[in-house]
């Protein structure tokens, strides 16, 4: 199985800060990397797929980058509604489609 | 509007069985690969099982293979997960999820249901 490792596991930042979350795959997954946002008690929401393509309706302050094994989700200017847990997921040609362990983002 | 509505969760004793159902609406169900993803209390996401649009291929995580069976009824726009020999560590919220691009096999989940809680406990 491809292992996905996210860092940090949690972070606290202020409104307006630039926030970056990293995800590392145990082997190359080319650009087959997705990011999800999950708020407490809610289902995950797809933010970015294909490493950098913004899902329809997702604010442009979210962006994704990377390829191969190293990927980054960036929030350019943090808003209170961005408080959530973020997960990466690989969708390369192997099952299971593993998720990272999650990064909890809190607002100071 | 795309909607996925799970049902069938509940409390079951270890070793017992449950059948989850997911009712889909707002999109053309039959071409879409569908999956079940679960989340244990306070834990991360785990893909459990997936099925192609024509039911020709089914896929399972090692943790559930041989105990869980995924199926679908395209005439009713429904996805199912039959769970047997349930274990305490199967306790989780189970989500059904739709693939972003029908038939591409990428398993990028653009819509999720609200989830149904399965608790395996004595």
Write a brief structural summary.
The complex is a heterodimer of chains A (108) and B (122). Chain A is built from no helices and ten strands. With 108 residues, chain A is mostly beta strands.
Give a written overview of the molecule.
The complex is a heterodimer of chains A (108) and B (122). With 108 residues, chain A is mainly β. In chain A, 0% of the residues lie in helices and 48% in strands. The model of chain A has no long low-confidence stretch (mean pLDDT 96). Chain B is mainly β and 122 residues long. Helices cover 0% and strands 50% of the residues of chain B. Chain B has strands at residues 3-7, 10-12, 18-25, 34-39, 45-51, 58-60, 68-73, 78-83, 92-99, 109-112, 116-120. In chain B, the strands form 2 sheets. In chain B, strands 2, 4, 5, 6, 9, 10 and 11 form a 7-stranded mixed β-sheet that branches. A 4-stranded antiparallel β-sheet of chain B has the order 1-3-8-7, with no helix packed on it. The radius of gyration of chain B is 13 Å and the shape is globular. Classes of the chains: A mainly beta (108), B mainly beta (122). The interface between A and B is medium-sized, with 23 and 19 residues.
Biggest sheet, spatial arrangement of strands of chain A? 2-10-9-4-5-6
Fraction in beta strands of chain A: over 45%
Q: How does the major sheet of chain B shape up?
A: 7 strands, mixed
Low-pLDDT residue intervals, each spanning 5 or more residues of chain A: none
Largest sheet of chain A: 6 strands, mixed
């Amino acid at each position: 199985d491809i292992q996905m490792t996210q860092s940090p596991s949690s972070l606290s930042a202020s409104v307006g800060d630039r926030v970056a979350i990293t995800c590392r795959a145990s082997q190359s997954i080319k650009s087959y990397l997705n990011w999800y946002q999950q708020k407490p008690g809610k289902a995950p929401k797809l933010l970015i797929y294909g490493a950098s393509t913004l899902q329809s309706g997702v604010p442009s302050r979210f962006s994704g980058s990377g390829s191969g094994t190293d990927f980054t989700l960036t929030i350019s200017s943090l808003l209170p509604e961005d408080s959530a847990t973020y997960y990466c997921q690989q969708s390369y040609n192997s099952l299971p489609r593993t998720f990272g362990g999650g990064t909890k983002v809190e607002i100071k | 509007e795309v909607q996925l509505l799970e049902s069938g969760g509940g409390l079951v004793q270890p070793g017992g069985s449950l059948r989850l159902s997911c009712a889909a609406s707002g999109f053309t169900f039959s071409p879409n690969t569908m999956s079940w993803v679960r989340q244990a209390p306070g834990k991360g996401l785990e893909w459990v099982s997936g099925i192609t649009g024509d039911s020709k291929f089914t896929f399972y995580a090692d943790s559930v293979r041989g105990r869980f069976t995924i199926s679908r009824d395209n005439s009713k726009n429904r996805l199912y997960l039959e769970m047997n020999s349930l274990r305490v560590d199967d306790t989780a919220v189970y989500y059904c999820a739709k693939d972003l691009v029908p038939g591409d096999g990428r398993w990028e989940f653009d819509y999720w249901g609200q989830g149904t809680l399965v608790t395996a406990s004595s």
